[in-house]
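Comment thread on ticket #2218

A.B. wrote:
> Attaching the input chain for the structure job we discussed in standup.
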Amino acid sequence: MVENGNHHGITVTKAKWFVYLFSDDSFLVVEVDRLKKFIKINDKLTIKTAALYSNNPTKGYLLMKEDVSNLTSSRVYDTIKDAKSL
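C.D. wrote:
> Ran it. Output below, let me know if you need it in another format.
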């Protein structure tokens, strides 16, 4: 994401994997590149502000369970070659 001219979050991460924690014993591991492709294609995702009234509010994409299902099962995210322009 870009806010106030600064890139942050998923746009600058050097991580290879992103982990969704659903509960204490349930999680999903997704390649960051695949997640970036998903966000690029699905440009109408909700952007949620967390800790709105704090000194450090954070914005991020809110993925619903249908989004996560699509992200993990659709082959379309395998066919796109470049997610770097996100």
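A.B. wrote:
> Thanks. Noting for the ticket: The beta strands are 2-3, 6-7, 17-23, 26-31, 46-50, 58-62.
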